[in-house]
Amino acid sequence: MKATLLSTLVSLVFVTPSAHAWKPEVGEVPGEITTFEYVDGSALSLADLKGQPVLLYFGADWCIPCHKARPVVEKVAKANQSRGLKVIFLSNDDNRIRAKKQEEEKQMGARIAMPTMTACPPASCPGGVHDLGAFGKTYVLPTAVLLGADGTVKEKLERGEVISRGLEASVDHLLSR
What we know:
The protein has a single domain, classed as Glutaredoxin. It contains five helices and six strands. The chain has a six-stranded mixed sheet with strand order 1-4-3-2-5-6, covered by helices on one side. The chain is globular and about 40 Å long. The N and C termini lie far apart (51 Å).
C-alpha cells in the first residue's frame, strides 16, 4: 500500500508538467506567434526583432492579476528603452476593443499586439487566444517572456506577483549579458 502510494506520488511529481513546461522553454528559439498581429493590422514577426533584447508581455484587461503587473511592465519598458529593450504587449482581449488598444499604444509608446481577426473575430473570444502557433501556448496570464538579442528565451515569469517583484532584476540581468 505504502509502496503504491509512494510510486503514485513520484509519478505525479515527474510526469505532471510544471508551470514553466510550456513551449518555448528557456534556451530555445521560439517559433513565430502566428495568431497575433499588431493593433494596426501589421504582422508581428519575432524574426524582425532578432538582434535586440525583447520583453513579450502576455496580459488582458479582464485579467485581475494583469492589472497588478502591467504598471511594472510599463515602468520597465520606459526605463530600459534607451538601453535597447523592445517591449511588446500581447493583449489577450477580444477584438471589440482594438480601437481602445490602438489609443493605448499611442499613449504608451510601446507596441501592442492582439489576436488576428481570423483567429479571433470580434465578440468571439472573450477569454482570448492561448494557442500562439509555432511559438507555443500561454497557460497563465500574465506571463513575461524575455528574449535575448540572439532570439533565445532567457527567462519566463508567470503570474502578476512574480512579475511585479522580479521583472526589473530580470531585465537588468538580460541587458547586462
